[in-house]
């Protein structure tokens, strides 16, 4: 099965980016602690997890270069390829169960998730073990169109999961099913290629199938196979699939859980998934995403950047690049570079950024020669090209993100900063100092 998790792990190992942990580790906190220490440095494959025969992997893509490699493009072309995939999805290919590795083992009875799978507990305040890297696949009850997303899933019983569903496409599907008094059939695929994970985070209009976006990101169409107990298709090369139903009219307490802003999402009554079957490869590998890790932040951030770039480009055609910063949890802080031709373009870019996602909270616009991936460069532009009374503005009481603890139940103020050089000022005032030959001289050549 090409373009599977296993193929990706082989690629990482060949690049020296995968390290194997052969010492026994505890799924409670120890996996998360070690994964956090390796964050952005390498992926970890835990071969011996206490109480389990199933290994655990984390940190599949801890930097932008790896996500670009997963899409077979250079970093500079990553956002363009993702945007093109959203606009031009490619149909998937349905295969028979006989040709699907995820069907090698099928369990329909006596399901106990915590006995079967090494599901970690990540943070001190978490309510318990959480599935964090499963793509959830569901169908619109009316149109039948698939939707793919990632949700936090608390294991609350042998075959029971609590789920946080934000007011997006899955919530819309579940609302339709619940109003009709029916459960919503879903499947959770764990252990897929990073391009499939990335596609699940694409911001699209209702009715676009994210699995077809994944097909467009890969060299060949994504292979799917039908589930055993629900009317859903899943990646045939996934390591593990959990089939189930979100129950209508049922709410149970889920949470707290350590989220991407590095705070705990609070406990509350939330929908419940009842598991109906589990299928998996022989000797499967379990994938966990450590919350607030580079893998977690970039997974959501890169997909949002693709939308941000396209949205800003409509307002300011000379936009050069966009970046959702790690310090802003790859959600809240955007930096945009433009080649300014007219005064006011920076502010137009800021307004466009706010419309690209309700999560965007603070936006800085800089000139095109500023490296927007270097926080020191961006801060320097703000320090030397911005006057607060002229270049900073605030929009009060806009829709934000409920996971931002400073928001008022999701209502948030927004701030824009124009850190571009005013066009009416003499250029020599902003000429950067430079040392001729700096990029060619090597200090090591002068040291004994």
TrEMBL record:
GO molecular-function term, one example from the UniProt record: nucleotide binding
All residue ranges annotated as the 3-octaprenyl-4-hydroxybenzoate carboxy-lyase-like N-terminal domain in the record: 9-85
Residue span, 3-octaprenyl-4-hydroxybenzoate carboxy-lyase-like Rift-related domain: 95-292
Signal peptide bounds: none
Pfam families in alphabetical order: UbiD, UbiD_C, UbiD_N
Key words of the record: Aromatic hydrocarbons catabolism, Calcium, Detoxification, Flavoprotein, FMN, Metal-binding, Nucleotide-binding
Keyword Flavoprotein among UniProt keywords: yes
Residues that, per the record, bind prenylated FMN: 147, 150-152, 164, 166, 168-169
InterPro entries: UbiD, UbiD-like_C, UbiD-like_N, UbiD_Rift_dom
UniProt: Mn(2+) binding residues: 147, 169, 210
3-octaprenyl-4-hydroxybenzoate carboxy-lyase-like C-terminal domain span: 299-419
Recorded coiled-coil stretches: none
Protein name: Phenolic acid decarboxylase
Gene symbol of the encoding locus: UbiD
């Amino acid at each position: 099965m090409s373009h599977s998790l296993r193929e990706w792990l082989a690629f990482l190992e060949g690049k020296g980016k995968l390290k194997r942990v052969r010492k026994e580790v505890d799924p409670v906190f120890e996996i998360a602690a070690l994964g956090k220490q390796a964050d952005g440095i390498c992926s970890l494959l835990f071969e011996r997890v206490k109480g389990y025969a199933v290994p655990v992997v984390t940190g599949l893509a801890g930097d932008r270069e790896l996500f670009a490699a997963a899409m077979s493009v250079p970093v500079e072309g990553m956002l363009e390829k993702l945007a093109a995939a959203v606009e031009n999805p490619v149909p998937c290919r349905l295969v028979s169960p006989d040709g699907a590795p995820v069907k090698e083992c099928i369990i329909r009875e006596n399901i106990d998730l915590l006995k079967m799978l090494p599901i970690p507990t990540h943070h001190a305040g978490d309510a318990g073990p959480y599935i964090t890297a499963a793509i959830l696949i569901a169908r619109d009850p009316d149109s039948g169109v698939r939707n793919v997303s990632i949700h936090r899933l608390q294991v609350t019983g042998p075959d029971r999961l609590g789920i946080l569903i934000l007011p997006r496409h899955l919530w819309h599907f579940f609302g339709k099913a619940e109003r009709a008094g029916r459960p919503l059939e879903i499947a959770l695929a764990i252990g897929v290629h990073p391009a499939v994970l990335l596609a699940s985070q694409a911001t699209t209009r209702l009715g676009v199938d994210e699995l077809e976006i994944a097909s467009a990101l890969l060299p060949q169409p994504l292979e799917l196979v039908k589930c055993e107990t629900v009317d859903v298709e899943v990646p045939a090369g996934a390591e593990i699939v959990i089939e189930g139903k979100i129950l209508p009219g049922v709410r149970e307490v889920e949470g707290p859980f350590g989220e991407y802003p590095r705070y705990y999402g609070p406990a509350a009554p939330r929908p419940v998934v009842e598991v109906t079957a589990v299928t998996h490869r022989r000797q499967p590998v379990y994938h966990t995403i450590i919350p607030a890790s580079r893998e977690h932040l970039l997974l959501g951030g890169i997909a949002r950047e693709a939308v941000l770039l396209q949205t800003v480009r409509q307002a300011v055609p000379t936009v050069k690049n966009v970046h959702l910063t790690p310090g802003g949890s790859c959600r809240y802080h955007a930096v945009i570079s433009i080649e300014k031709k007219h005064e006011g373009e920076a502010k137009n870019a800021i307004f466009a950024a706010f419309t690209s996602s309700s999560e965007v909270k603070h936006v800085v616009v800089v000139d095109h020669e500023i490296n927007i991936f270097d926080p020191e460069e961006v801060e320097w532009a703000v320090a030397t090209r911005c006057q607060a009374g002229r270049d900073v503005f605030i929009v009060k009481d806009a829709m934000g993100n409920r996971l931002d603890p400073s928001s008022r139940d999701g209502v948030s103020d927004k701030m824009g900063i124009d850190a571009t050089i005013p066009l009416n000022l003499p250029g020599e005032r902003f000429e950067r100092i430079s040392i001729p030959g700096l990029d060619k001289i090597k200090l090591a050549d002068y040291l004994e």
